[in-house]
Design brief:
Layout (H helix, E strand, L loop, with lengths): L1 H28 L5 H15 L4 E5 L8 H29 L4 H15 L4 E5 L2
Antiparallel strand pairs: 1-2
Length: about 120
Amino acid sequence: MKILGNLLWWLFGGLEAALGYFTASFAMMCTIVGIPVALQTFKIGLLCLWPFGAKVTETESPTGCIRIPLNILWIIFGGLWAWFNHVLFGILLYISIIGIPFGKQHFKMARLSLAPFGKEVELNF
């Protein structure tokens, strides 16, 4: 069922969204300052590529308090727009009964796109 859900997800915009996140990640990787942000957009792109069966978990790495200012900068410079986009599509998909599983995936991505530092994506194939 996960494979069918992911195939339908790819057909109806998931592949395009993942390519957009990967392109943004590559563009940010060209600068040294943008490398931490590029890693986070790549993480969201992976979740966009394979949302059914993936889990978003808190990391246990001792990064200290640096994730809080990085998440604040992330929210200011684009994370809020990504979050709003995923919430809007999640709400629109919840209107129809068929779209509820896809809406759940958008809400999962919205949680990650609001504050990606300190979280990791586990893909279960």
